[in-house]
Amino acid sequence: MNFEQLWLTYVKKENNKEICGIRHIYADCDNPTATHGAEELLLALEVMTGSKPVLHKTPMGDDAEEKNAESAEIIDRIKLCIVPGMKAESYHIYENENWIMIEASDGKGILYGAFALIRQMQREKSLKGLNVFKEPAAPLRMLNHWDNMDGSIERGYSGNSFFFENNEIIVNERTKTYARLLASISINAVVINNVNVKDNATCLITDRYFDKLKELSESFAGYGIRLFLSLNYAAPMELDGLDSADPLQEDIKQWWREKMAEVFTKIPNLGGFLIKADSEGRPGPFTYGRNHADGANMLAEAAEPYGGLIIWRCFVYNCRQDWRDKKTDRARSGYDNFMPLDGEFKDNVILQIKNGPMDFQVREPVLPLFGGLKATNQMLEVQIAQEYTGQQRHVCYLIPMFKEIMDFHTYVAKEKDTVCDIVTGRTFGHTNCGMAAVANTGNDANWTGHDLAAANLYGFGRLAYEPELTAEEIASEWIDLTFGKDEEIKQILLFILINSRGIYEKYTSPLGIGWMVNPAHHYGPSVDGYEYDRWGTYHRADHLGMGVDRSDKGTGYAMLYNEPNASAYNHMETCPEELLLFFHHVPYTYRLKNGKTLIQHIYDTHFEGAAEAAQMRKQFETLKDRLPEKIYKRIDERLLHQEEHSKEWRDQINTYFYRKSGIMDELGREIY
């Protein structure tokens, strides 16, 4: 089949004497997931050494070859075993008398440990003295696919779906390889269909699709992944013609009880459901005068006997706002809708909360529900699909952003108060919590369209399991695994990845204002594209200044944070400058801490960003003879497009604000 193996592209390690002696793998664990770990080690070692080890499915002992004097210092075997008492999905890898031991809590831990050992070998790190112990930080580490059953993907930038085609479910070698890729980065849950559930997707909970879903679910289960489905809240009406979906109505409750019994029986390994309700036209409990706790709890009660989770999205806002209304603030909506319900949700409900209050912009503050909610299970939702960050045509490595979000102090407690602490359960002791990312994959040969966008997929999984990793460590690891141990390739790609988000931010939207994109498809500059519409995404620029007043004198949004964040955001002088225009309407002549006026900062950053985009491509061109030709050409074409497109962003933004303000660029550069 026409697809690549990404970071699981194993290559021969000619000079690695340590791994060439490994001849035996002992899998002392009768577990399908652990067996996949042993099989992956066999595959990797066969490619790396040219010789396939022998797999023993009995404890090391009777059939173990004795070591001779010559081999006493050579690592020649790997042992995998499950050790009771360890934390779920954890593993311990260590050298023991020239054996490599992988001990784990369960099959998932064995699988993750196997991939961790393979990473060590791929990167040509020494196995002598190896001693690595890892436990997962986030209990739930999930990808949300926005795939439609006709094969299209909402906000998909890497081809069509590999899960659906012509309203049918696909289970094949590609979906298996995808499960391998996700297991290698410790992803343990996948939602396969779009949160905007309509048409045939509503029927995923009917016998029309049970057989294929069971097959896919079992394939996922072998790699430690639980299948989740997005659910249509109005399914009782659309599937069986009921006249209501009122969550407090007894016949509706009974319908869902019967449906959950059927679905969980027919689809083993089903983890539960993701629901988008009362948002952007989707049905929900508001129709019946009920709240989100009513809706979520009704479904949770029906799913509870089967261990099912209900993941309820908090992306709920008034999408029919009047642009003339300066008091209604989309940024407040998540907080205003869900804070009053804190503590009212059942334990198998998790609120999935976007990282920011708007919609996956290149820069926005952390949503204050993190640090507001105390008695409710919470998940962080981020987006690796780059909807507003270049759509995988521009390189934008998002892991530095995710690190900033996770490290943000909410001040909800004296310690363990970061977003990471909250969604990993350290703050409140919740066990139903975690992280989710909107997926960036499709059926393109390289899975993510832009080869460098795969770093975001890889990085999200690694970060959710090990949030202590730095963005640079993750990028370095991904480059080694994907492109091999070439120091020049590594240094140039590291430079591009680590600087890419800052460069993209410079030539697009300044100081946290966001948007300024073409409506609907969200690609390319259109400063006023959303300024006079219903979506609540305004920049409020006039001839004196720009930005939205969210202080206590404006919409009051700044005051939703715990102190000292509220006071810092509330005043122009103390607000972090990277978020200044998100929180304040600022005069063009206002001087930033670097002494520049706001308008000069806009001019300078947009010229700098376009120049730096061109420099990225210039540096990449030096790798022409060091990368496979097709990979080089794919990346180079994207970087060329980014270089040209960044100029369009630069010129439209600078021209707009020059015409708005009437203030010249101090450096006299060409502005139209």
Give descriptors for this structure.
globular; Chitobiase, domain 2; 18 helices; TIM Barrel; single chain; eight-stranded parallel barrel; six-stranded mixed beta sheet; 18 strands; alpha/beta; Alpha-d-glucuronidase, C-terminal Domain; 672 residues
CATH H-level homologous superfamily name of the largest domain: Glycosidases
Number of helical elements:
18
Q: Report helical residue fraction.
A: 25-40%
Uncertain parts: 66-70
CATH 2nd-level architecture of the largest domain: Alpha-Beta Barrel
Could you give the order of strands across the largest sheet? 7-10-11-12-13-14-15-16
Q: Which percent range describes the beta-strand content? A: 5-15%
Organism: Kineothrix sedimenti
Pfam family, one: Glyco_hydro_67M
Family: Belongs to the glycosyl hydrolase 67 family.
Keywords: Carbohydrate metabolism, Glycosidase, Hydrolase, Polysaccharide degradation, Xylan degradation
Commentary on this structure:
This is Alpha-glucuronidase. Belongs to the glycosyl hydrolase 67 family. InterPro entries: A-glucoronidase_C_sf, GH, Glyco_hydro_67_aGlcAse, Glyco_hydro_67_C, Glyco_hydro_67_cat, Hex-like_dom2. It comes from Kineothrix sedimenti. This protein folds into 3 domains: 129 residues, Chitobiase/beta-hexosaminidase domain 2-like (Chitobiase, domain 2); 340 residues, Glycosidases (TIM Barrel, Alpha-Beta Barrel); 119 residues, Alpha-glucuronidase, C-terminal domain (Alpha-d-glucuronidase, C-terminal Domain, Alpha-Beta Complex). About 1% of the residues have low confidence. The two termini are 50 Å apart. It has 672 residues and is of the alpha/beta class. The chain has 18 helices and 18 strands.
